[in-house]
Amino acid sequence: MKIYFAAALVAFFLSLLFCFLLIPMLRKLKAGQNILSYVKEHKGKSGTPTMGGLAFILSAIVAFVLFPGRADRTAIVALTVGFSYLLVGFLDDFLKKRRKQNLGLRAWQKSVFQAFAAVFAGIYCVRAGLTVLHIPFFGVSFDIGWWMFPLAVFVFLATVNCVNLTDGLDGLAAGTCIPFFLAMGILIVLRGENSPLATLSFCLCGSLGAYLLFNASPASVFMGDTGSLSLGGFAACIGVFTGNALYIAVIGAMFVLSGATVIIQVLYFKATHGKRVFLMAPVHHHFQEKGYSECKISYAYAAVTAVLGALCILAAL
Question: Which residues pair with 8 in a beta bridge?
């Protein structure tokens, strides 16, 4: 465990340094977030620097690379996929800044990239023989063969979009991702199946821990799609490539909640010609409309994720 702890510490201090360097640079470049007009509670956040995902994602990658002998082909594929999501997210954030509105890449453009990445990951799983699926809480595993391809495609598309939707409040996505990646890393270590991806998980924990110091309410910087898309990509890679795809939905239940509430809201709105289930979706905005503070909501999401992660770990012992 010493190597994982060391990797997390290196990622933490790198992220701390990168945040200190990046935030003033983003302010100088006036890379501020354009706030959606219908989220009235966030009007005061307009102009807060975005693209903060550059700091913690690059920190995690650099920390991972600094530990010799930690990378294998699967880890390299995970790094490539996660970094490609960072590039797409960065392009989206850059276009929003350039156009001075909350519209970057078109929805179809992001969908095409996500579909391509998901299909690539699914093909890699089948060709690399990463077709074993662990069932949470039951201690059993099944080799599902080529069925891993459609499952991987679905998990990638769902995970990336759900993590992206969860990035809506100060500290929410980062605070939820820390216990998520910690639990996934511990599960991988317990099974002794792919230590490089465990190292990557702990690196992400460390880098997010430092970033959260700047992103907790009131946030000094937002991660933007640069960070949220990349986090979703890494979460999907780590889960799918280690046979823990189903654990993503269990440990990451709060991510699922974000995606599910948006789907429910849209379907109900269309079916009832304008009626709503929630005051606003994703549901964290509903809680905000109910009067809960951003800190309290973010803490609750992180706490629930930590508890679910602990339950999964205990069941795997």
Answer: none
